[in-house]
Design brief:
Helix content: 55-70%
Number of strands: 0
Distance between the termini: 106 Å
Number of helices: 2
Shape: rod-shaped
């Protein structure tokens, strides 16, 4: 029985590529939005904020005394 001969340098390179590929998949899942998607989300947030601000009622700070 003979063992399979492995080139350690090639093994390390393959392992590093595999690690980089796994990290790239994680990054794509976390940060993988297109520029158009980011802009769309930003405009929706701004629109929601402006709609909410439009319904905000400002009080004078002093309650009116009916008496």
């Amino acid at each position: 029985m003979t063992a399979e001969v492995i080139n350690l340098r090639q093994f390390k390179r393959d392992k590093a590529r595999g690690d980089q590929d796994r990290q790239a998949q994680v990054n794509r899942a976390a940060f993988g939005r297109t520029k158009a998607q980011r802009i769309l989300e930003k405009t929706r947030v701004l629109q929601d904020k402006s709609k909410l601000d439009a319904h905000f009622r400002e009080d004078s700070g002093t309650p009116s005394d009916p008496a």
